[in-house]
Amino acid sequence: MRYSLIFHAPELDESGPRPTDEQIAEMQQLMNDYVTALTDAGVLISAEMLEPTSATTTVTRRTGSTVIEDGPFAEVKESLAGVFVLEVAGHDAALAWAEKFPGGSYGVVEIRPVAVFADHDGWQTPCSPE
After folding, report:
1. C-alpha to C-alpha distance for 1 and 117, rounded to whole angstroms
2. Which one is predicted more confidently, 88 or 19?
3. In the chain, at which residue ranges do the beta strands (DSSP E only) sit?
4. Closest CA to 96 of 37, 32, 12, 16
5. Looking at per-residue confidence, does 128 or 117 come out higher?
6. CA distance 19 to 105
7. Does residue 125 sit in helix, strand or coil?
8. Cα(first)–Cα(last) distance of the chain, in Å?
9. What are the beta bridge partners of residue 2?
10. pTM value?
11. Quick one: which of 5, 8, 34 has its CA closest to 102?
């Protein structure tokens, strides 16, 4: 089954505390080790870490015409920081990987089953384990 580990983390802004270069390097190494473990286990489909919301552009047609705006839709203290998609046996396996996610020390990891996904063959439904 496919599960997304959806990572939410505090927004870093100019006025708040910033991690030191050493803290950044340590987290980068922990994340590299985590991705290696996921890859070695054969469960990693994709991993995406996102730029801050200040790099966001939003698009909507709620009013009937297209509106494009710079910046996030809503001002938040925590924002979507990344998504890891895994192919695992079930919820317990996804939970075990989420518990090992290094960013959990400063953010929140949401575990969500994938309902449908698209690849080069079009839209598909993930298979349940047999």
Report:
1. 12
2. 88
3. 2-10, 44-49, 57-60, 67-70, 78-87, 108-113, 117-119, 122-124
4. 37
5. 117
6. 13
7. coil
8. 10
9. 87
10. 0.87
11. 34
Cα–Cα distances in angstroms (integers) from residue 84 to residues 29, 73, 114, 129, in the given order? 17, 23, 11, 20
Residue 52 structure tokens: 């801050």
CA–CA distances in Å: residue 68 to residues 53, 62, 76: 15, 11, 19
Looking at residue 33, the DSSP 8-state letter turns out to be: H
Helices (H) and strands (E) in the chain, counts: 2, 8
Which of 97-104's residues contact partners 24+ apart within 8 Å by CB, and which partners? 97/5, 97/38, 97/43, 98/5, 100/34, 100/37, 101/5, 101/7, 101/34, 102/27, 102/30, 102/31, 102/33, 102/34, 103/7, 103/9, 103/27, 103/31
Q: Where is pLDDT greater, at 93 or 73?
A: 93
Which pair of structure tokens corresponds to residue 14? 């100019």
Cα 45–47–50 angle (5° rounding)?
A: 150
